[in-house]
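Justification of resources, computational component.

The compute hours requested in this renewal are based largely on the per-chain cost of generating structure records like the one below. Each record pairs the submitted sequence with a full structure-token output. That output is archived, and it is also reused by downstream analysis tasks.
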Amino acid sequence: MDLGIRGKRALVCASSKGLGRGCAEALAAEGVDLILNARGADALEATAQAIRDAHGVDVVTVAADVTTADGQAAVLKAASSPDILVTNAGGPPPGLWSDWDRDDFIAALDANMLTPIALMKACLPAMMDRGWGRVVNVTSQSVKAPIPQLGLSNAARTGLTGYVAGTARQVAEKGVTINNLLPGIHDTDRATALDTGVTKAQGITMDEARANREATIPARRYGTPAEFGAACAFLCSQQAGFIVGQNVLLDGGATNATI
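The structure output for this chain reads:
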């Protein structure tokens, strides 16, 4: 299927590795030029060059912390009114409800709620003026079913989901769609970090921790960045113009819900 987005420009945040890179690679495969952002310059440049070599698209890099005002200004300057925006940022650390104080919640809100909102507010007006735009926010399966040890993420990402629910319906008439992708466990550094925490807490090996987690997923495996990226690219496509304000789970069936 031709997604009809060749020649568009996309800003993809946290895209040097993991799910962000999966999104960037899938968009590049469709002929989309990219502005890639991540904090680590070396990994970011390596990813950018790999994508240039594989797909022949234009790739601009911005090494910055997009959760800060300066980082946001830098990526928005480089992106210069993108057609596509993919927001993404690493999740806050796991813990117990009793571990977190106000500063922990403010940091989580800044990274996983207020940063995507700021980027959307900056990019939406030009998209609306052009009569076309796509926004995909990478959130979490936790907005469908809370994960107790990820309370900071539950709170911040659910707040973003509420904002998107209202905003998406206000901009759709201008040809702009906003949707959220809700990953479960994928084979990324985030999964490794979570599994490492389990090994320490339970005194088991990494293989055992992963096998135990895979057993909770009906698909009996972790997802891949490539298949996550493919879903992102479709939501950014011409064919997805009637998908508005939705929360799409990519979790191998792990969230036990009817709707």
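The chain is about 45% helix and 15% strand. Helices lie at 18-29, 41-55, 69-79, 102-130, 151-171, 189-202, 206-214, 225-235.
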